[in-house]
Design goal:
about 45% helix; Rossmann fold; about 190 residues; 5-stranded parallel β-sheet; alpha/beta
């Protein structure tokens, strides 16, 4: 019985330490990306991600944009209409993928990256999703340099996420998904 208690306490402490490490990694300001990269990859699923990717494209951060995880019926025109305040020079350079989860995002993005001979990518996703996204993207495309461009959604502010049940749930689930990806369980 004492062994089981020690195991539970040690496991709990280990998980708390891992969570704190994950939180600091997710909330840290990334190092600056190069002024220009070969492509921007956006992983959909959170507010402001697509608009951020489109803005980077409009600002000249890259000449190509890949949006992974667009719905089956979504078109480039639909996405541009939702962000009509952003002037995109050429929507021909915007490509959509149809992934349904982060693992599929990584696989389909890596295939697009390889097909287009891309070596440097600005990866756009929510700040709390970035550690897992970077892990999976780097595994799927190991010869590519990824530069994180995290987005802070209005609903999950990095400074006070713990103040809401929703924020705590989102961060907690993302931590567990990160652990599963890091340990190879998914």
């Amino acid at each position: 019985m004492a062994f089981l208690k020690r195991l539970i306490v040690r496991t709990t402490i280990l998980l708390l330490v891992c969570f704190v490490w994950f939180w600091f990694k997710a909330s840290a300001t990334p190092p600056p990306a190069p002024a220009k990269v070969d492509a921007i990859v956006v992983l959909t699923g959170g507010s402001a991600r697509v608009a951020s990717g489109l803005q980077l494209l409009a600002d000249g951060a890259a000449e190509r944009l890949y949006i992974s995880g667009a719905g089956e019926d979504v078109t480039v025109a639909d996405l541009l209409a939702q962000s009509s305040e952003i002037a995109i020079p050429d929507s021909v350079n915007v490509t959509l993928g149809r992934a349904r989860d982060t693992q599929e995002n990584a696989a389909e993005s890596a295939a697009w990256i390889e097909t287009n001979t891309i070596k440097t990518v600005r990866l756009v996703t929510s700040y709390y999703h970035m550690p897992r996204a970077m892990l999976l993207m780097e595994d799927a495309a190991p010869n590519v340099s990824f530069y994180p461009s995290p987005v802070e959604p209005e609903t999950i502010n990095r400074n006070n996420w713990w103040k809401s049940v929703r924020g705590f749930g989102v961060i907690g689930r993302e931590f567990l998904k990160f652990l599963a990806a890091k340990t190879g369980l998914v």
